[in-house]
Amino acid sequence: MKNSLKYWQAIILVLGIGFSACEKVIEIDLNEADVKLVVEGNVTNGAGPYLIKLTQSGAYFGESTYNKAEGASVTISDDAGNTDVLLEQDAGMYYTQNIQGTPGRSYTLDIDFNNESYTATSKMPSAVVIDTSLFYYDDGSSSIFVDSGFYVLGSFTDTKEIDYYRMHAYLGGDARIEVQTPWMGQPVQDLEFGAIPGVASELFINPFIGFEWQDTVTVVFTAVSKDSYDYFVSLSESKASGGGGFGSIPQNPPSNISNGALGFFDAVTEDQFTLVIDF
């Protein structure tokens, strides 16, 4: 167990360094005259409502001032004939009312805003399932990279239908704070997890920094499409190269939104677990 842990800690350390530049706030770097619609949102296989966030170029994935795209007409439909008209509950925040995400179905987002039309389609992959979850205590002797504390471990069985994943870990109950893990929501190919179809693979959630007694840890594991993987990899590379995530140089990430909009509309499957570190 310890030799396996040391191996994966070394691998994750190298990957974490590669993604470290992606942890900063991402901002759109566009001329003021070149205002573009920015789309963020997805449909999952979990219970709705699902959120579509619309802004105009200013900030993306960030908390700085931006222009909220108010008064848009937004619908989501699937290839089974279901259509949902989203409600704008807050400025620029549009929520579904009744559509339910189902693995294998394709979902189309249609937006009408400022006399312009935008559309995007994404097919939801097969369901991802976390098989087991546990925590254990390490006194720091297993590796020079490890602090003493409690470590969370999960496992999943890869399938031939799923090749790309994202993983988030959160600390706390209702007011969750994202944990600074090497993955930190970045796109990962199944081979980077060492995953082999049909074989259980381990997920080291916090390989270096131990959790504390009575911490509540929630892990969300998401299966994404190849297009989504390519988009977030490009976004990471753009940020790492000093492009600020968006701009003329380097090239903007490959959005799946039509009519020159920025961002990405995704249909994903996810599974999650919550552990309270307590005996």
Percent in helix: 10-25%
Helical stretch tally: 2
Using only C-alpha atoms, the radius of gyration works out to: 20 Å
Topology, number of strands: 17
Query: What order do the SSEs take from the amino end to the carboxyl end, as H and E?
Result: HEEEEEEEEEEEEEEEEHE
- Mean pLDDT across the residues is 79
The oligomeric state is single chain
How many independent structural domains? 2
| Poorly predicted parts | 1-26, 28-33, 59-65, 243-250
Verbal overview:
This protein has 279 residues and is mainly beta. The protein contains 2 helices and 17 strands. The longest helix has 18 residues, at 2-19. Residues 1-26, 28-33, 59-65 and 243-250 have low confidence and may be disordered.
Q: What is the fold's blueprint, element by element?
A:
Layout: H1 2-19, E1 37-44, E2 51-56, E3 67-68, E4 73-78, E5 83-85, E6 87-90, E7 93-95, E8 106-113, E9 116-123, E10 130-138, E11 149-157, E12 164-171, E13 177-178, E14 188-189, E15 200-204, E16 216-224, H2 226-240, E17 262-276
Main attributes of the structure:
single chain, 279 residues, mainly beta, Immunoglobulin-like, 2 domains, ten-stranded mixed β-sheet, four-stranded antiparallel β-sheet, 17 strands, 12% helix, elongated, disordered N terminus
In short:
By secondary structure, this protein is mostly beta strands.
